[in-house]
Specification:
Pfam families: Lipoprotein_9 (PF03180)
Largest sheet: 5 strands, mixed
Number of domains: 2
Order of helices and strands: HEHHEHEHEEEEHEEEHEHHEEHHEH
CATH class of the largest domain: Alpha Beta
Strand content: 15-25%
CATH superfamily of the largest domain: Periplasmic binding protein-like II
Subcellular location: Membrane
Shape: globular
Protein name: Lipoprotein
CATH topology of the largest domain: D-Maltodextrin-Binding Protein, domain 2
InterPro entries: Lipoprotein_NlpA
Keywords: Lipoprotein, Membrane, Palmitate, Signal
Length: about 280
Amino acid sequence: MSKKVWLAIAASTLIIIGAFSYTTNNNRPKANVITIGSVTSDADIWRHLAKSDTAKKLDLHIEVKEFTDGLSLNKATAEGQVDVNAFQSYGYFQAFNKESKDGKLVALGTTYLEPLGVYSDKYKSVKDIPNGATIAIAKDLADESRGLKLLADAGLITLDKPFGALDGLEKIKANPHQFKFKEIDDTTGGRLLHDNSIDAVLISNSVSQAAGLNVLKDAIYYEHVNRHTRANVNIIATATKNETNKTYKKLLTLYRSKTAQKYINQKYHGTKTEVVKPISYLEGE
């Protein structure tokens, strides 16, 4: 066989191998990429952590998918469209699992408590709020329940037992100060703080920050990490089939790293209180 024929065969072979290699590499799915679903500030945090040196050291490859509502995100996680989500409180997680017919979630670990606060332009302490005062509280059931627990923790009211994550004003057992409650859209809380008809208002941390408030400095009373707030601690969650996934659990190591916590504390002015507790703590064990 002539030298020219051999060269032609060799060239053809290289072309075929190169084409096969190109097709294979371009059709190959991304390996070891964790899709984290999140919302608002949590999405911002995970986008930052995904690019961090700590993520590289842990060999974590993260893509963040932002959602506009928690229910859709939990469903997407349960169905496997999202690997892990980081946005919700343990109480919200429990409520979803109780109602869901599309699959269940499991909590991988705790992240933070974002304190709900009682604010007032008129009074410096919850003890100063007079009898008959009007207190504004979110009308959303989950937020209303949380707000009432905070008022009970402050010693202002007592609640019926059991008191669930979606219970509301009807479960107030005793109101010795004859407070009047005005149910509001939580997003208006910052504006109502300056309303003369309102004596105190309960405002979530995300809303208070948007209003230029810091719950640790401006609230007259706020949540702390204790047995009353266990259901309000945020978690990282995934579908039940992933409960023992070691790579997903490394996300907790990433979140709890010193560099991550330094960034979070600086960006959110210390208002996302880190919680390093076993899931059994949230379950009340």
